[in-house]
Amino acid sequence: MAHGSGQVTPAGLNAAISLLFVAGSACFVVGSFPGYLDAVGGTADGVTFFVGSVFFTTASASQLLQAQTPALASASADTQHRSARPRWWAWLPGDKAWVAAVTQFPGTLFFNVSTFAALAHNATVEFEDQHVWRPDVFGSTLFLVSSWYGVLAVRGIAARSGDRLPAGIAWLNMLGSVLFMWSAIAAYVLPDGQDLNSGAAVAGTLLGAACFLVGAALMFPAWHRAVHHTALQGETT
Fold first, then answer.
1. Cα–Cα distance between 67 and 33 in angstroms, integer?
2. For 192-228, what is each residue's pLDDT tens digit?
3. Measured between alpha carbons, how far apart are the two ends of the chain, in Å?
4. How far apart, in whole angstroms, are the C-alpha atoms of residue 64 and residue 86?
């Protein structure tokens, strides 16, 4: 991905973002998979979630750089392997892709905090009934906002190019965000110390992470399709 000091290629950056989101989502799927907590214990389960949240944050930060650097967002056969320097700061409130990225990034930071807190708690306290970590409300709210802007950002691509994959990825991310919010609400602790619905909380995390995993994996063919479309456009002009 890196070419020269502080420079990356559009294709390399997109691949890195996809892989990081795949890795983060996979950690959340594994961490919430039935039986994993009992098999490895609370501390190892907490580590799994925390590592996953770090992957998410790294991917989200990279996606923000991509969104605010036009040279790195270009899926073109002519430019996808041309190195460019990321733009580290921008204010682009009219760009829906940038708004999606800039709201998603702090959401991942909330997940870093909550997963680390859960990990520290598991490392120092023995639970009679261990609970896996679930997405918190703040992070899930920002993910919902980000996902909605992501849907708006790709609206019209299918009409222009006939490619429905970007919209499919955006709606998968929206579904994942809805499921994370469902999980966060279900994990609300009642006055008696029990979760509102522990089973729903675990299921929301597992299914939401699965949606993010599939969406991240589909970023690879989506990029190649976009490159192919621009190449066809070049041939017809």
1. 33
2. 767 678 888 889 999 999 999 999 999 999 999 988 8
3. 31
4. 10
134 and 183 Cβ atoms separated by less than 8 Å: yes
State the pLDDT confidence band at 133, using cuts at 50, 70 and 90. Answer: low
Residues 215 and 52: their CA atoms lie apart, in Å, by: 16
Alpha-carbon distances, residue 146 vs 72, 90, 187 (angstroms): 20, 17, 22
Query: Tokens 């006939």, residue?
Result: 162
- Domain definitions of the chain by residue range: 10-230
Contact predicate 181/205, CB 8 Å = no
Contact between 145 and 101 (Cβ < 8 Å): no
Instruction: Work out the average pLDDT over 157-175.
Output: 88
Q: Exposed, middle or buried: residue 159 (CB in 10 Å: 0-12, 13-18, 19+)?
A: exposed
Kindly report the pTM of this predicted structure.
0.89
Quote the CA–CA distance of 188 and 19 in Å, as a whole number. Answer: 32
